[in-house]
Amino acid sequence: MANDLYGKVFLVPGATEGIGKAAALEFARRGATLVVVGRNKEKSERVVTELKSQSHNSQIELLLGDMSTLADVRAVAAAFAKKYDRLDVLVNNAGAYFADYKLSADGFEMTFALNHLGYFLLTHELLPLLRKTAGSRVVSTSSAAHQAGKVDLQAIAKRDGKVAGFGSYGDSKLCNILFTRALAQREKGIVTNCFHPGFVQTGFGQNNDGLMSSLIRWTAKVFARTPEKGAETLIWLATSAEAGKLAGEYCVDCKPVKTSKLAQDASLADGLWGLSEKLCGISK
């Protein structure tokens, strides 16, 4: 399997820790040209150095950007497209849980801005490259938390009740599946799927203060999967021939599984798509 990804280009936001880092290392070990996206310069540069050393692959590059900010997402996409003439796999993985309500730089509720709009806009900006690359794939990280999602299109962008936490997180993970299914319908030539990594021992939730952060950290030590285990389905969706035959699926442990009824609502997916275009300032 060594070097089976040679000549292919992978873009992986959220590759500085957790499942993103584990998947990035696997892609690099198998010879892919890898572009990772990180927000913190010092940490991201350190991770790139580690990936190069551990994979013995020098074809690893860093792009800096905050994926919750529309201008940064566009800048990352533009920088990537300026250098590369193909994109074999886009991994939408940058995401977080925010216990407290806050707004992004663009004035959107932070969970929605990072976990959904970041995915949506980055993919949109890179569609020309994805379309021209035969067999290209988009893999997005979702979660079983989507089962609790509701997605009120009138309120989700700002959540004026100023409540975030698991309600907002579940909504964003439902958005990931709705986006995946809508993209698969619109772009038949791009293999588009999403997945639930399981409860993984990563930095998830550690951007929060106080009791919630401590609770997540303690629970993860006792019950969580390793990042390598959590990344297995991501890697499978990005590279396997079997997964290349799927379209718009939500997968767990390397197989498609059922979602909530709302995640199967085509009209809700279309509504979310239209709202996302509006919020991102995309003209049809």
What's the structural blueprint in terms of helices and strands?
Blueprint: E1 9-13, H1 18-29, E2 33-38, H2 41-55, E3 60-64, H3 70-83, E4 89-92, H4 110-132, E5 137-141, H5 165-186, E6 191-196, H6 210-223, H7 227-230, H8 232-239, E7 250-252, H9 266-280
Parallel strand pairs: 1-2, 1-4, 2-3, 4-5, 5-6, 6-7
Polypeptide structure, described:
With 284 residues, this protein is of the alpha/beta class. 45% of the residues lie in helices and 12% in strands. The protein has 9 helices and 7 strands, in the order βαβαβαβαβαβαααβα. It has helices at residues 18-29, 41-55, 70-83, 110-132, 165-186, 210-223, 227-230, 232-239, 266-280; strands at residues 9-13, 33-38, 60-64, 89-92, 137-141, 191-196, 250-252. A 7-stranded parallel sheet has the order 3-2-1-4-5-6-7, with helices on both faces. Helix 2 links the parallel strand 2 (33-38) and strand 3. Helix 4 (110-132) packs parallel to helix 5. It is globular.
User: Level of helix content?
Assistant: 40-55%
- What count of helical segments does DSSP give? 9
Mean pLDDT: 93
Identify the overall geometry.
globular
Index terms:
284 residues; alpha/beta; seven-stranded parallel sheet; 9 helices; 7 strands
What's the short story on this structure?
The protein has 284 residues and is of the alpha/beta class. Helices cover 45% and strands 12% of the residues. Helix 1 runs parallel beside helix 2 (41-55), helix 3 (70-83) packs parallel to helix 4 (110-132) and helix 5 (165-186) crosses helix 9.
